Batch of 3 targets.
Target 1
Amino acid sequence: MAIILIAPVTTQTKNGYPAEVTGIDLADPHCLRGTINTYGAVKIAMKWTLSGLCRGTGEGCNLNITTPEMADVVDVAKRLGAGLKVTDSSFVPVRRIHAVAG
């Protein structure tokens, strides 16, 4: 399934690594996509749940999702139907989203 790209949102991991969320995958429970920068400036591609839990690594790579920017990303992902357990990879939940002028 294609990943919906978003404007990069910066945050940190539990261990203090700089992290960037750059996409939302509607077909995976680990729906947030992005990277973390480890010491030595190595960028590692990562997947996180809506609660910030990282896939396949220790707790130190979990996201800090308490910032307003990350709360917005999680809210948008939920509105799109991301983070749901999906058994059929061709299934995409249908949601109507209304734009609100701000």
Target 2
Amino acid sequence: MTSMTDLVPGHWYISIECACGERLVLFADLTEGKGNLQGSFRVTCPACGTQAFYPAEHYHYEPETKDTTTTFINPPPVVDFFVHR
């Protein structure tokens, strides 16, 4: 089993982006960015401490981009998950 402590270049993840700009990677995206995300997560951002509801996003990790504010949370600090209908 692959450890989820490091992001793998070229792989897809489900993430949220905090208002402070911190991207929080929650878990691997098994649909490789093709799935339909219909939920939001209530998460506390470890960077700024804000707790809010965030829409889930597909995130394709490419390290050559200048994305220096990506945090992988293992396990994710998910308090609630809500499905939008």
Target 3
Amino acid sequence: MNLVEVFVEENCTACLAVLSILEHSSAELLLTKKIFHRDKDWEEFQSRGITILPATFINRKLAFYGEFSQSDFHRQLGRLGQHS
């Protein structure tokens, strides 16, 4: 099972696009998702040094800053993901 963590904030169109891609991908892939919101999870943002949003991590490794395509996500998941 792969852990995907996404750091987002309100009124961020790129954040919404990334969350949509993850929603579609989780239907076909085994993913554990954690979503961190800047206003609620500011301590996590601070401890991990997150300043650019959205920020997406796969298995605790930075995969993306900003928006990405579904094919880019699948490619990074293959690169950083756990293979069974």
